[in-house]
Specification:
Blueprint: H1 8-16, H2 36-49, H3 58-81, H4 84-94, H5 97-100
Helix pairs in contact: 2-3
Length: 101
């Protein structure tokens, strides 16, 4: 959604190269069905915050974060990614709002 991505120069270049692109109007900034990775990160952060004590150093943080990430991936990873391709195809074919309905 960066303004520079939709500048006149960029749009003209895309058109001159006959490249398909998503117009700014059709590029929804908050479309969680296309971005399950955000939910994955949120779940990881929530799991980490449940700990009673923060990590004492960087090494401990890395170890804990890796364990939390693995746990979240095992419990929620497949579920989060299950419908991504279906939703992307639906959004491509019928527009982004079709996935929200």
């Amino acid at each position: 959604m960066a303004t520079s991505h939709y500048s006149t120069e960029v749009i003209n270049l895309l058109k001159s190269e006959n490249l398909e692109y998503v117009t700014k109007k059709d590029n929804l900034p908050n479309f969680p069905q296309e971005r399950p990775i955000r939910k994955f990160w949120t779940l990881r952060k929530q799991q980490y915050k449940k700990r009673k004590q923060p990590a004492k150093n960087l090494q401990e943080f890395k170890r804990i974060w890796q364990k939390v990430s693995q746990d979240v991936a095992e419990k929620s990873g497949k579920k989060l990614m299950r419908n991504v391709m279906k939703n992307l195809r639906l959004a491509r074919d019928q527009g982004p709002l079709s996935v929200l309905l």
